[in-house]
Amino acid sequence: MSLTPDEIRTHLEALRGRDLPTHGGHTLAYVYDSGLASADAIGREVLAAFSSTNGLDPTAFPSLLAMENDLVGIAGRLVDAPDGFAGVVTSGGTESILLAVLAARDGRPDVAAPRMVLPTTAHAAFHKAAHWLGVEPVFVDVDPVTKRAVPEAMAAAIDDRTLLVVASAPSYAHGVIDPVEPIAAAASAAGVRCHVDACIGGWVLPHLRATEPDQLPWTFAVPGVTSLSLDLHKYAYTPKGVSVLLHASAALRRTHLFASARWPGYTMLNTTAQSTKSGGPLAAAWAVVHHIGAEGYAGLARTAREATLDLATAVSGIPGLSLAAEPDSTLLSLTTDGSCDVFTISDEMLARGWYIQPQMRFGDLPATLHLTFSAATATASDRIGRDLADSTAAARASGPVPVPAELVAAAGSLDPATLDDAAFDGLLALAGLGDGAGGLALPERMAPLNALLDALSPELREAILLGVIDRLARPSA
After folding, report:
1. What are phi and psi of 258, to 5 degrees?
2. Which of 106, 168, 233, 442 has the highest CB neighbour number within 10 Å of its CB?
3. Of 288, 314, 332, which marks where a domain is finished?
4. Same-domain status, 447 and 356
5. What's the domain count of the chain?
6. Rounded CA gap, 112 and 389, in Å?
7. In angstroms, rounded to a whole number, what is the distance separating the alpha carbons of residues 192 and 387?
8. CA 7 to each of CA 3, 4, 14, 48: distance values in angstroms, whole numbers, following the listed order
9. CA neighbor of 370 nearest in space, from 332, 397, 400
10. In a domain, 36, yes or no
């Protein structure tokens, strides 16, 4: 049975009723809000206008190629790209990272069992790239205080099987810029590529240089940096999903280009992982970037940065809460003193209208709260500070979430490699998450579940969460 347009609109409005808000600065992860209604409007207009175009063949839609080349050029100038640099527009940071690893791997066909060296704070997209592309990740612990990569340890991890070294500008988890200069120098000395993941910082950090001249260097101006990723759907405030992957030369890019004429159809020719792709996101990004302009982005960056620093100052006056690291950009990472836990604070903030992302412990790094500040968040930074203080006080009053020892023991007895449906259903029932029909019933407050996951090994967390998403992502009756 078909639905009328009005029925569809009503149904979609109901479906969105439980979604996090994408505007107004209340969602401090996942979404980015410039607060500029005109930028949103032109982005939506152009997204729709170009939604039917196809980026598969640039000769069929030369407008898309022209806009892509223009965006790559603008991004390159932002990050000091050298003469002869090349780039591509991708669907997001993960695809940019996958292609950077692919280019490094296929650029060294002589290495039979390739490796890449990365700090433990590098984005998990590198883990996906390692898994999909057969590149062994060599993880190097970061400094426990600054949360930055340790250059000497990174250099020591490079061997004759290394084909890529990774640094972040900034890291997502803690919002700090890795010391790219010595890391890139070590990579260059070993004849190895160096990728800087600036997906979240690449469109904001350059606009802060004038007011923060002591910013750690991280762009192509650093000798040895061979590729760099930056997302437009983050701090360029464009519709999702658009990222840019830049290479210091066209030769370095060539090894992630793909062509196949070995079938009777059209010759497949791709610059990215996708073949058919709507031109809507690319065209919308082009429109928004040119609408806001360089001066506009500088103002938005300063606004988001000032809000970040203001809240960092406010945190110093909240008992039980502290900075996990001094912020280098517009990301804030918070931790507790043990009198409460970050998971309860996250739930308390959500009850007050703010989504703040809880991050679980890893190795010697404690569990944290992640806050991404957009320009639209700045007007509410005082309220965020007050609500954060109240939420922390409430969490301290209730104390850390108790995790039943028998539940941890039951979960810990499972082998992540052999976790089947029966064992997972038993675990759900023990945790009070089963719906009695093989499905999943998520609680309103997530702190008890997050505290349980925090007590488990990363491998077991992964296995359990794969089971969770498997049950959530099933056809409706």
Report:
1. -140, 140
2. 168
3. 288
4. no
5. 3
6. 54
7. 47
8. 6, 5, 11, 21
9. 332
10. no
Flag whether 457 is in a domain: yes
The answer to whether residues 262 and 349 belong to one domain is: no
Same domain, 81 and 144: yes
pLDDT in tens, 465-475: 887 787 777 78
344-388: per-residue pLDDT in tens? 999 999 999 999 999 999 999 999 999 999 999 998 999 999 999
pTM, full prediction: 0.94
241 preceded by a cis bond (ω within 30 of 0): yes
Q: Which amino acid is at 3?
A: L
Q: Would you state the pLDDT for residue 198?
A: 98
Tokens at 170, concatenated: 């900034």
**Residue 438 Rama label (left phi>0; alpha psi -120 to 50; beta):** left
Question: Sorting pLDDT into bands at 50, 70 and 90, what band is 335?
Answer: very high
Q: Which strands sit side by side in the sheet containing 368-372, from one edge to the other?
A: 321-323, 331-336, 368-372, 357-359
Rg of the chain over CA atoms, in angstroms? 23
CATH of the domain at 393: 3.90.1150.10
Token readout for 346 is 């996250």
Note down the domain range covering 81: 45-288
On whether both 267 and 159 belong to a single domain, the answer is yes
Domain boundary among the residues 398, 428, 454 is at 398
Q: Please, which residues have CB within 8 angstroms of residue 468's CB and are 6 or more apart in sequence?
A: 440
- 306 shares its domain with 339: yes
Token output for 411:
């979960």
| β-sheet with 136-140: strand ranges across | 86-90, 243-247, 227-231, 193-197, 162-168, 115-119, 136-140
- Among 336, 349, 335, 345, which Cα is nearest to 380's? 349
3-state DSSP call for residue 58?
coil
Q: Where are the alpha helices (DSSP H) in 330-444?
A: 342-351, 381-398, 405-412, 421-431
Give the tokens for residue 161. Answer: 């099987």
Phi-psi region of 30 (alpha: psi -120 to 50; beta: other; left: phi over 0): left
Looking at the structure, tell me whether residues 267 and 318 fall in a common domain.
Answer: no
Q: Assess contact for 220 and 228: CB atoms under 8 A.
A: yes
| Residue ranges of E strands in 142-257 | 162-168, 193-197, 227-231, 243-247
SS3 164: strand
